[in-house]
């Protein structure tokens, strides 16, 4: 039985993952900013067999509040051994180009808030010398593209940060798992027309769970994105700059 | 809003529609005036009742959360996109079962209410709607109406069997029934005629919760109306078999032409009838193959090829049941069209709260027909006139072609129903049966 903290617990991907854990009998501490949605998910997980579900309302950008939230999680579950950080927003690239304020906010949500959380969690897990931390980054972080480089660069920061953190915590027996989903059919992508490359949140949930059990370092979800991104990364910059990706 | 090509189980229509996935029951309906709205559950309706050409589909697949389950009372609260399959997975191990289930478990709670579905126990328990305590209806004016037998009763009766037209059901509370184990004590009896079928029903309806029959729709003359009658009950405590492993396969592709034709039809029906040599057999069967024999082959609807297929399901009032069913069977056998699984079932007299609910005391016949264009439609017209002169009606959940006047005469309360339709909701089915002759 694990003691799991989920930040951004109202995300469709996080919810699908939480159902796997609930059915397995793990204890959950769910953090999100919308109370109604959070309670609805907690009720569902209880009915599905979760022995203990606690909820906590917090905006991830409220960095001041992180310590209190972590204390509450450790207190209510009597310790923590697993964390999933899932919150994020798909930044409107066009709008960001016109607004420094929005740009900063998007970077805060998708990168800085994650790094703030990881800093605190890493120190606690390093001390207890055990645990698994999974963070949802994105294939978008593998290379900046004109259509979404703001979101992509925030995710790149998360990818790079978790890579360094993984090395540091390895010595303490703590594993850090970086998840890079491709296209997932969730509210975040509601406006997109779906096609062959799209995966369901349930599929991604299963991949996340398995990657965490196996203590993988970096996982593309689903796996074929590894090859797609490998090709995209190989295109020389002098050609890439002319493409309309 | 992105578009998506939507279809229903019969695969005759494929419509490019705008799609809005409803992710939270606290969300409100889209306020744009870009077309009318219609909820879309799991698309297990056969015709156009879940489609809305030119409008917006409100997909409920993500409204799949349980809210509460009390294993002491069997009262379950959940969101409307929860599949019956998910409910069974949760409650069967805790000794509960659906009070009413249709022949597939891949339907949503919202869809089951909106078509007021019925099952093999209709003669004892009535329809799905009879076991709904309450639900929440989201209307386009932003109201969240709680509907039950004591609150907004008019919307309760309009929405049960209301074909998705009265608003979006966001969540519901339903009553389950107790079971001792997942097994069904089943008897299968061979019968030679419609008369014998009706006698078997009469003899069985009191002591058997589940009765249904498969009828050979390819045989004429002396063999007309022969079939296999199934009757069963949930097995009592202690009467059970070992572990059951759920099996399913997927029909892998859409063949270029329908695999159902006169030849395969005759062969299948004859073989199926003779699969049982003895007059009567008894066995302990797991609930999955008993209730959901077709769910074992996922996407079996592809078998009918690119043209798709129709299902024809009618119910005929008791007093004309025998003659009309014999006439229908004769007409179908003559046409050589029919399909593998024709289902004959007696419905009971328990009234549903639903205004447009399909079942009535009488005999119901359901069978599939590959879509062969005009030829199929001409035969449907002949069947329609038998149904209509016997005072029967067709089931909207299965329909993609009935003439408007057959719907209107079969459902006399459609006039009174109209006032409960949400002004922003509509469906291809509704426009068709209200506007056509
Ligand atoms: C193999 C098979 C066997 C079947 N056997 C039976 C049977 O034995 N008895 C029987 O009665 N039926 C039977 N059916 C029909 C099926 O049970 C119904 O068509 C059912 O309503 C389908 O549910 P769905 O979730 O797929 O809804 P859909 O087909 O997507 O929608 C059905 C209707 O419900 C409305 N709706 C869906 N969700 C909501 C909501 N949240 N709020 C308001 N309206 C909503 C839609 O607008 C539409 O009008 C069978 C179907 C199949 C494929
Ligand atoms: N969907 C994809 O195609 C895709 C692809 C690659 C990576 N990802 C990543 O996967 C993760 C999960 O996203 P999803 O696809 O599941 O989308 P989602 O369902 O829209 O989830 C995003 C979640 O983040 C929460 N959130 C946003 N800002 C927040 C803040 N400041 N504080 C707290 N919570 C906040 C949202 O909460 P509210 O409900 O309160 O708004 C929402 O629950 C994200 O990190 C996303 O970047 C998604």
Can you give me a brief rundown of this structure?
The complex is a heterodimer of chains A (245) and B (437). With 245 residues, chain A is of the alpha/beta class. Chain A contains nine helices and seven strands; from the N terminus they run βαβαβαβααβαβαβαα.
Beta fraction of the residues of chain A? Answer: 15-25%
Mean pLDDT of chain B: 94
Enter the CATH topology name of chain A. Rossmann fold
In the CATH scheme, the class of chain A would be: Alpha Beta
Please, how many helices of chain A?
9
Number of E strands of chain A: 7
CATH topology of the largest domain in chain B: Vanillyl-alcohol Oxidase, Chain A, domain 3
Uncertain ranges of chain A: none
Q: Can you tell me the CATH class of the largest domain in chain B?
A: Alpha Beta
- Number-wise, the strands of chain B total 20
Please provide a written account of the structure.
- The complex is a heterodimer of chains A (245) and B (437).
- Chain A is α/β, with parallel strands linked by helices.
- In chain A, 50% of the residues lie in helices and 16% in strands.
- In chain A, strands 3-2-1-4-5-6-7 form a 7-stranded parallel sheet, with helices on both faces.
- In chain A, helix 5 (100-128) packs parallel to helix 6.
- Chain A is globular.
- Chain B has helices spanning 84-91, 109-114, 122-125, 153-159, 194-204, 262-273, 287-291, 318-335, 374-389, 404-410, 414-417, 428-435; strands at residues 3-7, 14-21, 37-40, 56-59, 66-70, 75-79, 96-98, 132-138, 144-148, 168-178, 183-191, 210-215, 227-234, 249-250, 280-286, 297-298, 309-317, 342-347, 362-370, 393-394.
- An 8-stranded antiparallel sheet of chain B has the order 15-11-13-12-18-19-17-20. In chain B, strands 5, 6, 7, 8, 9 and 10 form a 6-stranded antiparallel sheet that branches.
- Chain A binds chain B through residues 12, 36-37, 40-41, 43-44, 47-48, 185-187, 190-194, and chain B through 1-4, 20-21, 23-26, 62, 65-69, 90.
- NADP nicotinamide-adenine-dinucleotide phosphate binds next to helix 1 of chain A.
